[in-house]
Amino acid sequence: MQRMQPALDGTAVVLGTRRVIIRLPWCCWPLLGAGGDRFVFRTGDLAGTAPGSCDVIRDYSYASGDRLRLDLFDANSNLAGTQDFAFIGAGAFTGVAGQLRYEQANGNTFVSADTDGDGDADFMLQLEGLHTLRSADFIL
């Protein structure tokens, strides 16, 4: 984890890196209280493409205002600049670069993205527990 900004009201900004379980109780700046957290990821922050190798977010809650911020991530590695993701829900990748999807497996929710259009996940992010995600869960 690169940095966490402390917030006693629970409205923290958390920057993820690789293979970090975010919001551990021993973390130097614990996230306390109610409120929405922003989990911010940038190009290069997420490298795992399978369960066990990806970042894990514990106790994600849309109802509490948590959001997954991916607007700093380049969704299409085939084009210059930074493009936005297209959230496709639980549907399968269709071979178009920039697609973001989720699936539920083994009691957890996995968010993955195809950034090069080959139909395979180029990164994956795990949310502990089962969540039905919608575009409002993300800042794209």
UniProtKB/TrEMBL annotation:
Keyword Transcription regulation: no
Domain of life assignment: Bacteria
Transmembrane segments: none
Record bears the keyword Ribosomal protein: no
A molecular function (GO) term: calcium ion binding
InterPro entries xrefs: Peptidase_M10B_C (IPR013858), Serralysin-like_metalloprot_C (IPR011049)
Protein name (Swiss-Prot/TrEMBL): Peptidase M10 serralysin C-terminal domain-containing protein
Species: uncultured Sphingomonas sp
